[in-house]
Design brief:
With 77 residues, the chain is mostly helical. It is 55% helix and 0% strand. It is built from 3 helices and no strands. The protein is elongated, with a radius of gyration of 25 Å. The N and C termini lie far apart (63 Å).
């Protein structure tokens, strides 16, 4: 058996019974995350493009504004 599994089993044996539910929740979370990661289609992952293809985007968004003032306006309304 793997040494890491042995260490985990030993730690579980020493853990109070009322904490085992938390451990189980975490293990189930890890299993679910692993399954979700496998199901993500390649086309949805971030793509990279050469820098020369991005030149047309330069200048489309203007820098400026006041984030603090904009936020305050949202809460005043």
């Amino acid at each position: 058996m793997d040494i890491t599994k042995d260490i985990i089993i030993d730690a579980l044996d020493e853990l109070p019974a009322d904490h085992l539910g938390e451990v189980l929740d975490f293990v189930l979370f890890l299993q679910q995350r692993r399954q979700t990661e496998r199901k993500v289609p390649q086309k949805l992952l971030a793509k990279t493009v050469p820098a020369h293809q991005l030149k047309g985007l330069v200048g489309l968004v203007a820098w400026g504004g006041d984030a603090l003032a904009d936020t305050e306006r949202l809460y005043e309304a």
